[in-house]
Specification:
Length: 298
């Protein structure tokens, strides 16, 4: 019988998972598939019958229904990599092969036939989604990012992946800006250069820990159209900038509302995904039953 062990974010804390992971016993069960992600450690092993609860669990995992963020896409590739690594290093049982082949198939099907993976569910991706909705040509837009932190680093990475060419980084401390900018190959400014970089910026994204506003109405070029996204708390960009014609401002509340709306959409798609999973379980059990009859006949 195929079985599994699971340590995940639903039944353990992060520190507990770290401790258990060190002692996680992969020995004594024979050929197996070992799955490790940031939220879970799982071991699938055995031969023979595939219980519905085992198939259902793995199918839910690969579809992102067991993830901290519903529908996240990375787990599909992580399950595939775990299966391929096991297949290339061990002689897995035929039922184990079929279980994981079916899991990868339902993962693709759920993401193609539902909206469960659609929409940004992080601040950085939500900012990119807003820019895309504004229909701005990223390849030709001049984009200035203010702040040195993981959020702004993620945004720069996403922008470059989307084809952005003119990305600049501004920060109060030039040394910190240069250190983060170097891997991306982008130029840096200090906040003392505000007049210089604000005069021709098309998209401004700010996310600093400054206690007060750092971009005021007087810093805006009234003759240049600007999309501004303020991801800081307290705010980096004065709300009054919207009094200038041609300036569109999204603040942290706007971005977080977009994330909440997208999460709500994903949650609405869970039932559709679960129905598809049940269909795949029936299909899997039908295949296994036909194989069993064929083997007995031979």
């Amino acid at each position: 019988m195929i079985q599994y062990k699971s340590i995940n974010h639903l039944n353990t804390t992060l520190s507990e998972r770290e401790k258990i992971f060190k002692d996680f016993n992969r020995g004594g069960v024979g050929p197996s598939v070992f799955l490790q992600t940031c939220n879970r450690v799982e071991l699938y092993y055995g031969d023979g019958e595939i219980p519905n609860d085992v198939a259902r669990h793995l199918f839910r995992v690969v579809c992102g229904l067991e993830s901290a963020i519903t529908g996240e896409k990375a787990v599909q590739g992580q399950v595939k990599d775990a299966y391929l690594a096991a297949r290339n290093s061990q002689k897995l049982s035929t039922p184990m092969h079929k279980l994981f082949e079916s899991a990868l198939q339902i993962g693709k099907r759920v993401r193609n036939e539902t909206e469960i993976s659609h929409g940004a569910v992080s601040h950085s991706l939500a900012a990119i989604e807003i820019i895309e909705q504004e229909k701005i040509d990223l390849q030709n837009a001049r984009i200035t990012i203010i702040g040195v932190n993981k959020l702004t680093a993620d945004i720069i990475k996403f922008l470059q992946n989307k084809g952005a060419k003119l990305v600049f980084l501004a920060n109060r401390t030039e040394e910190k800006a240069r250190k983060m900018a170097e891997p991306f190959g982008i130029e840096v400014y200090t906040l003392d250069d505000k007049e210089k970089f604000m005069s021709n910026t098309d998209i401004l994204i700010s996310a600093t820990s400054a206690p007060d506003v750092i971009i005021s109405k007087s810093d805006i070029n009234p003759n240049h159209k600007l999309l501004a996204i303020d991801l800081a708390f307290p705010r980096d960009i004065a709300p009054e900038v919207t009094e200038i014609e041609g300036v569109t401002l999204y603040n942290l509340h706007d971005v977080e509302q977009k994330v909440k709306d997208n999460i709500s959409i994903r949650e609405d798609e869970v039932q559709k995904a679960e129905a598809l999973i049940e269909e795949e379980i029936v299909e899997l059990q039908g295949i296994m039953e036909r194989r069993k009859k064929y083997t007995m006949a031979v």
